[in-house]
Amino acid sequence: MTEYPASLTLRPIVTWPGKPTAVRERSRFSAPWNATLRLLDRELFELGKGNRSAVAVLQIAMREQDFRQDGMPRANSRPEHPGVILSVTDSIKGPLSFPCDKYDRWQDNLRAIALSLEDLRAIDRHGVTQNAEQYVGWKAIGTGAGGASQTVEAAEATLRRLAGATVANMELGTLAQVYRRARGDAHPDRNNGERAAWDQVESAAKVLRAAGRL
What is the pTM assigned to this prediction? Predict the structure, then answer.
């Protein structure tokens, strides 16, 4: 595997949470990049297991124009700093945010996050955790009034996914246009009365409105 996980959307970092690491270090990781991607793919699958609504967003310190039309970083793009943020949102664990900038390469920081996800999942084997209590420290702060339960980045990724964004057509126009398309496609009248996708669209839109993005 040399590609990013299919469930992952790449976006620029909007705001770094907290204070950046002053002195970063070189990691001791020796695993190749494709091993990191395989590990991340497995852990994202396990994290959202049994929950089709899980959304994962990887934020890198690049500009919007540093990403290709298919959402992948351009080959010559260089991040402003090596910090990355992995955000995962699902209906079971809620919004989780994993920032890391300990190391001087963003790829190593992503591997550190993937390894941490593996370690957190391993806690379940002892039978002490019944309701994913080990993830509480990584709960993302809700956005705006009303207790919105997604990060802004995850909300945008949800809208784009439900609007039918594909590798060949990642953008689908402005965010307002994406919202209208997702809303139309998810309307219960078009889905035999099923409201699950509609509720996801409206929940994501609520987060984006509170953040002034929609």
Answer: 0.69
